[in-house]
Amino acid sequence: MLDLAALKELLASPQKIVITTHHKPDGDAMGSSLGLYNYLIQQGHHATVVAPTDYPDFLSWMPGNDGVIIYTEQPEKAATLIANAALIFCLDFNALGRINEMGALVGESKAYKIMIDHHLEPEDFDDYRHWNINACATAQLIYDFIVNELHHQELVNKDVATCLYTGIMTDSASFRLPNTTSTVHRIVADLIDAGAVNWRIHELVYNSASESRLRFLGHCLANCLEVLPEYNTAIISVNKEDLEKYDVDTGDTEGIVNYALSMASIKLAAFIVERKDKVKLSLRSKGEFPANEICKKYFGGGGHRNAAGGFSTDSLEQVVQQFKTLLPEYKKLLKQ
After folding, report:
1. pLDDT for the residue 250
2. Distance between CA 174 and CA 182 in Å, rounded?
3. Sheet holding 268-274, edge to edge
4. Beta bridge mates, 87
5. Residue 239 in 3-state DSSP?
6. pTM attached to this predicted model
7. Cβ distance 49 to 74 under 8 Å?
8. pLDDT digit string (tens) for 117-136?
9. In degrees rounded to 5, what are phi and psi of residue 119?
10. Strand partners for 285
């Protein structure tokens, strides 16, 4: 294990560093990864972000994105970088299974592994851990790591600030979730002072939809939404034929579950989508309802209390039915 003093000593001289995050990276995953990347290169480190899979186009504008290696597109190059790294930063995930085939490569690597994350129940694969389940985003923890552990506030430049702002904005649902504390707002103010243009970042992330994505959203709301008032629950279920019909791309389904949750009476919303090899679930909840418990117990996943995900190898119809059969168990919580 590394202590902070030993980690600081390692970072005092240029190192070969890999930064990685979970598969199908979201705004926090890429924002925290590229934020850390833009910090490290200022100190002369040879840093590379290696993503396990592709990610949405609406995140590709962030500073440093041009240097990202996607494992599924360049597996040999990614494997070489991992094998030669002295340090591997593991961001926004805490189990090696979350990085797919890369998990074995990272696990076997002799590099020091530094986990920075805010999810429950981390695996014990890391050498240094900066972990807090109360953080609203891993990007918040990257800021804390740079500023309060490494004492490099002056290195939070415009590029770092832009990426970290993106991560915090997206994982806090634009600063609307309960864990968006006064501390988070102070951090965001620092990031704006450092050069993050808040309105522009919002435009690039949220106002860049394609026509097909907008039509797909309309289809989901008009034809795929089921409301179960007896459980204060809403379900949007989508089959793979609809994904093909509307030419759904990576990231096009992100946030759709929040439309179901936006209804006044709804406490639990599910977006259940049929992919090529599995059915994926995204759950969102209000208040104290434990969306992560359902995902962990029944769908091989997990996450946060109000935002969680899981999967199943059963058919779409079977998964929707299984989800419905669980609701009576939680009826008391859902009707509070």
Report:
1. 81
2. 14
3. 225-228, 233-238, 268-274, 279-285, 307-312, 302-303
4. 17, 112
5. coil
6. 0.91
7. no
8. 999 889 999 999 999 999 99
9. -95, 160
10. 268
Tokens for 182?
A: 């006064």
Phi, psi for 270 (deg, rounded to 5)? -125, 135
Domains annotated on the chain, with CATH: 4-206 (3.90.1640.10), 211-334 (3.10.310.30)
Contacts of 321 (CB under 8 A, 6+ apart): none
| CB burial of residue 314 (10 Å; 0-12, 13-18, 19+) | middle
The CA distance from 23 to 109, in Å, is 19
Confidence of residue 1 (pLDDT cuts 50, 70, 90): confident
Cα 149 to Cα 58, 94, 130: the distances in Å are 31, 20, 10
Q: Is 238 left (phi over 0), alpha (psi -120 to 50) or beta?
A: beta
Residue 277, number of CB atoms within 10 A of its CB:
7
Predicted confidence (pLDDT) per residue in 209-242, tens digit: 889 999 999 999 999 999 999 999 999 999 999 9
Long-range contacts of 328-336 (CB under 8 A, 24+ apart): 328/231, 330/231, 330/268, 330/289, 330/294, 331/230, 331/231, 333/267, 333/288, 333/289, 333/290, 334/231, 334/232, 334/233, 334/267, 334/268, 334/289, 335/231, 335/232, 336/287
How far is it, in rounded angstroms, from Cα 8 to Cα 288? 39
